[in-house]
Amino acid sequence: MNQSNRKILAVSGTPTHPRTAGNRAKLYSLLKTLQDNGYEIHFLYLTQEHYYDEEGMKHCWDKFYKIDYQQPQGSPRRGRFFELSKKIIFKLFKKRIVTPFKIDDWYEPAVGEYVRQLTQTDTFVAVILLYVFHSKVLETVNSGSLKILEAQDVFSNRHKLYLKLGMEPTFFYTTKQEEARGLNRADVILAIQDKEKIFYESLCAKPVLTIGHQVVIRYLHIPRQSDEAYRLLYVGSENPVNVEGMRYFLNQILPEIKKRIPSVTLFIAGRICHHLPNNIQGTVLLGEVPDVEQHYAAAHLVVNPIREGTGLKIKTIEAMGYGKPLVTTPHGASGLEDAAGKAFLLAKSTEEFVHHIHQLYISPQNAENLAKEAYAYAQQYNMRYLSPLLEIMKQNTKQ
Predict the structure, then answer these.
(1) DSSP element (H, E) containing 265
(2) In order along the chain (399 residues), what is the average pLDDT of each group of 10 residues?
(3) Cα(290)–Cα(204) distance, rounded to whole angstroms?
(4) Is the peptide bond between 18 and the residue preceding it cis, with omega within 30 degrees of 0?
(5) Domain-wise residue ranges, the chain
(6) How far apart are CA 318 and CA 302, in angstroms?
(7) DSSP of 135-199, one letter per residue?
(8) What is the pLDDT of residue 335?
């Protein structure tokens, strides 16, 4: 590999702009970190999501490409009789029959051909692909490029999480065998936390790096004045597990907090607002916001009440990077357990959630101490996970 070649092709059906969801923020931070370390980012966007800022991506990345992509809707189809049987069984017994996707059910051959042409006409030190269900694209990459799969999440048996909550499975879900097929197409796999790293290593023999989420580091905590109303903040996408977690918070936690803190107001930002009632007293639905930092700066406390899901909860570490006091659940703390009780407070029940929020309200000093610990942890977190990725990129550049 030519030592002067520092071009990276990123292929993604998730846009980096605007950063209104955790997966967008994580992808952006990964690519921006590489760009800040001297790599030239060529970004190929597959129009899997229709809400995106094309001009923002063109301005941010060194080169921008776009190709039309139509994501299949609903569950994989297995014939008309099978689909009819599913509907009858659900109507009679209220039992959902779910058929996992094959790993290539969402593959679009036109995307593979586009990547083949790009990697034949230009030389890339690496191709970074987001999500395992696009992994067949890696088979079209020129053999001289390092093929990196940015896995972000585990999709094996993901549908079971939704069924556990009584919800229709959405997005992509598959089996361990199928996910292993996709993982084995990469040279290197990037995991979001050590738990996922261990899981991927159990499915394939490829090297797996835990890189976490490179968060923005900016201390925004301002101690609450005694006469100020108490402002809580939640930021989230319309992922069904986010919606379920916030409904739980609105129905069970917020009413109890109001009894103790009448002045409390919960501000909710992100596309999750499209799925929440707008008439709950003490809540403000902000919707999608162009500058989330100003809302972090205004908040006295951040909450993340998610109760299911896999992967690192990006909004948890994001809040810590902004130096905000945080209360979350065990699922919200996944991948960050070593910081529980020091850099954020962990609530294992409704009662604990209410107690922690009230204690931070009556003790601004404890809230400030928690904010400082969160900020310091986020700084260390970035440094811990950045170096292995940069080292493997450096090694491949020299080959």
Answers:
(1) strand 265-269
(2) 74 92 87 90 94 94 95 54 50 62 93 96 95 97 92 87 70 93 96 91 94 86 87 91 94 96 95 92 92 94 87 83 96 91 96 97 95 95 83 74
(3) 40
(4) yes
(5) 7-214, 231-380
(6) 10
(7) GGGGGGS-TTSEEEEE--S--BTTHHHHHHTT----S--B-HHHHHHHHTT-SEEEESSHHHHHH
(8) 83
pLDDT for the residue numbered 272: 93
Contact at 8 Å (CB) between 307 and 162? no
Q: What is the DSSP letter of 249?
A: I
At 19 the pLDDT is 83
Look at residue 189 in the predicted model and tell me its pLDDT: 96
Tokens of 305: 């009440």
Query: What is the CA angle 191-103-25, rounded to 5?
Result: 40
Check: CB of residue 334 under 8 Å from CB of residue 265. Answer: no
Q: Determine how many CB atoms are found less than 10 A away from the CB of residue 27.
A: 24
Q: In Å, what is the CA distance from 32 to each residue of 35, 118, 142, 211, 228?
A: 5, 21, 24, 14, 37
**Could you give phi then psi for residue 335, rounded to 5 degrees?**
90, -10
User: What is the Cα–Cα distance from 71 to 26, expressed in whole angstroms?
Assistant: 21
CATH topology of domain 7-214: Rossmann fold (3.40.50)
Instruction: Say which CATH architecture domain 231-380 belongs to.
Output: 3-Layer(aba) Sandwich (3.40)
Alpha-carbon span 349 to 253, nearest angstrom: 10
Note the pLDDT of residue 312: 63
At 40 the three-state DSSP class reads strand
The pLDDT value recorded for residue 225 is 84
7-214 and 231-380 share one fold: yes
User: How many Å apart are CA 339 and CA 85, to the nearest integer?
Assistant: 48
Cβ count near 366 (within 10 Å): 14
- Is residue 106 within 8 A of residue 155, CB to CB? The reply is no
308: nearest Cα among 135, 122, 167, 142: 167
**pTM for the full predicted model:** 0.72
AA identity, residue 168: E
Could you tell me if residue 383 is left (phi over 0), alpha (psi between -120 and 50 degrees) or otherwise beta? alpha
